[in-house]
């Protein structure tokens, strides 16, 4: 049986940063969103600085309550805007990066390289050199081949690389296949059985200082059980390595804690803290996690206007055509993801609901935000907010169909400011060149 979609009031009731004012309509951190839409146009991304702060503090508090000292390294692939990174740096977060570009962006935002972790399966020698020269705190090794390359790079630089081995615990996190990362056959991590031999090799390699283990089993995980299973295996491996006389100082627990997009029963941060305490709390290791989605997703909305409606035969939902598209927010077309859609107008928010299929203008049949979604009968010019789009939203945008990058703004304590201008159309071809044999006009 298909469960009903939550209505507007239900969506807002579980999102403390949002509320519907009878006069000003939808507010995000006490800012009327219609003011931003009128000033900056749509589509437009909004990031809530106060929401980022509140969620970071709640996460930190959960670990303190559990008696744990856990370093937070924000997984900046979720949302890498300098304003977001600056807020999280102010809240004491380091960074988890997966490219040289992300590393330099984090450093530019003022994050100490000693508080940066470099993850990912395809670090180039140039990226490893960059990180080592800046004094990066930790490199997560994904294979023995990468370990040996890093040893060579470190020797050439006469530097020592502090590394952890990312282990693949072969745990199915029960999440979407495209965001599961800890099963045998996934491209991430070192096969479980090979870890002891590779860790011993790391201890013997020049330019390498192995300090511990890391794991990451996936994203949008809605139960503590997979975390417990993965961390229990990591604890077992720590004891195995120590029994062989090898030093293990650090366990990096990764990220993956899920959020409520629709009506999921998302675990609170105390559930993750409990899983870590139960499995790793007696190991006398430094602990770290890499939250991304959990911090950033509820801290963002995408404003978009209705271009038109397209009526369908009786019994078939009408199309609601927005000026945002899959090039702006890719998650629904990429993963089939569900996002709440809320009108900014208080009158529309309380109107009767009718099933509508919400689409964008991109020339792809997959450019669909929602199918047969119960929504008010909106009209051209109405503005809606697509909720929980602060993670893997703007950062995954493209200019497909020659659609410029959208404007961005940040809100906090009733104030707002633009943090990225809308890309001019002519900037789309700036930097493109014609070969000499083609004529210019």
TrEMBL record:
Annotated GO biological processes are: lysine biosynthetic process via diaminopimelate
Which pathway is it part of?
Amino-acid biosynthesis; L-lysine biosynthesis via DAP pathway; L-lysine from DL-2,6-diaminopimelate: step 1/1
Signal peptide boundaries:
none
Gene3D superfamilies documented for this protein: Alanine racemase, Lyase, Ornithine Decarboxylase, Chain A, domain 1
The reaction(s) annotated as catalysed by this protein in its Swiss-Prot or TrEMBL entry are:
meso-2,6-diaminopimelate + H(+) = L-lysine + CO2
Q: Which residues carry this modification: N6-(pyridoxal phosphate)lysine?
A: 77
UniProt keyword terms in alphabetical order: Amino-acid biosynthesis, Decarboxylase, Lyase, Lysine biosynthesis, Pyridoxal phosphate
The protein's job, in short, is: Specifically catalyzes the decarboxylation of meso-diaminopimelate (meso-DAP) to L-lysine.
Q: What is this protein called?
A: Diaminopimelate decarboxylase
Q: What species was this sequence derived from?
A: Kozakia baliensis
């Amino acid at each position: 049986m298909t469960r009903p979609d939550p209505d507007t009031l239900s969506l807002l009731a579980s999102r403390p940063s949002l509320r519907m004012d009878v006069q000003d309509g939808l507010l995000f951190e006490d800012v009327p969103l219609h003011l931003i839409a009128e000033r900056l146009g749509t589509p437009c991304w909004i990031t809530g600085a106060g929401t980022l702060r509140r969620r970071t503090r709640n996460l930190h508090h959960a670990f303190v309550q559990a008696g744990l000292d856990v370093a937070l390294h924000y997984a900046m692939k979720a949302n890498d805007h300098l304003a977001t990174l600056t807020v999280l740096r102010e809240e004491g977060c380091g960074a988890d990066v997966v490219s040289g570009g992300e590393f330099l962006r984090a450093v530019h935002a003022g994050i100490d390289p000693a508080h940066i972790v470099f993850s990912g399966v395809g670090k180039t020698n140039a990226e490893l050199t960059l990180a080592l020269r800046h004094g990066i705190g930790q490199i997560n090794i994904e294979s023995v081949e990468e370990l040996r390359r890093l040893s060579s790079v470190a020797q050439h630089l006469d530097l020592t690389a502090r590394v952890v081995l990312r282990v693949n615990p072969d745990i199915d996190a029960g999440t979407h296949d495209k965001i599961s990362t800890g099963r045998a056959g996934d491209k991430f991590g070192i096969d479980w059985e090979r870890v002891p031999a590779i860790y011993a090799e790391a201890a013997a390699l020049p330019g390498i200082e192995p300090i511990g283990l890391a794991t990451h089993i996936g994203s949008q995980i809605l139960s503590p059980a997979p975390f417990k299973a993965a961390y229990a295996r990591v604890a077992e491996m720590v004891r195995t390595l120590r029994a062989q006389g090898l030093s293990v100082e650090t366990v990096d627990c990764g990220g993956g804690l899920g959020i409520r997009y629709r009506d999921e029963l998302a675990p609170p941060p105390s559930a993750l803290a409990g899983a870590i305490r139960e499995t790793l709390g007696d190991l006398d290791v430094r602990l770290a996690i890499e939250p991304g989605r959990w911090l950033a997703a509820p801290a963002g909305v995408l404003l978009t206007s209705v271009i038109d409606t397209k009526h369908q035969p009786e019994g078939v939902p009408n199309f609601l055509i927005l000026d945002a598209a899959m090039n702006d927010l890719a998650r629904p077309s990429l993963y089939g993801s569900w996002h709440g859609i809320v009108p900014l107008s208080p009158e529309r928010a309380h109107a009767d609901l009718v099933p509508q299929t919400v689409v964008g203008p991109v020339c792809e049949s997959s450019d669909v935000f929602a199918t047969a979604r119960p929504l008010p009968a909106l009209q051209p010019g109405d503005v809606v907010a697509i909720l929980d789009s602060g993670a893997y939203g703007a950062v995954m945008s493209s200019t497909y169909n020659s659609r410029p990058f959208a404007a961005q703004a940040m809100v906090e304590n009733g104030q707002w400011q633009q943090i990225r201008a809308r890309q001019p159309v002519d900037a789309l071809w700036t930097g493109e060149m014609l070969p000499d044999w083609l004529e210019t006009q």
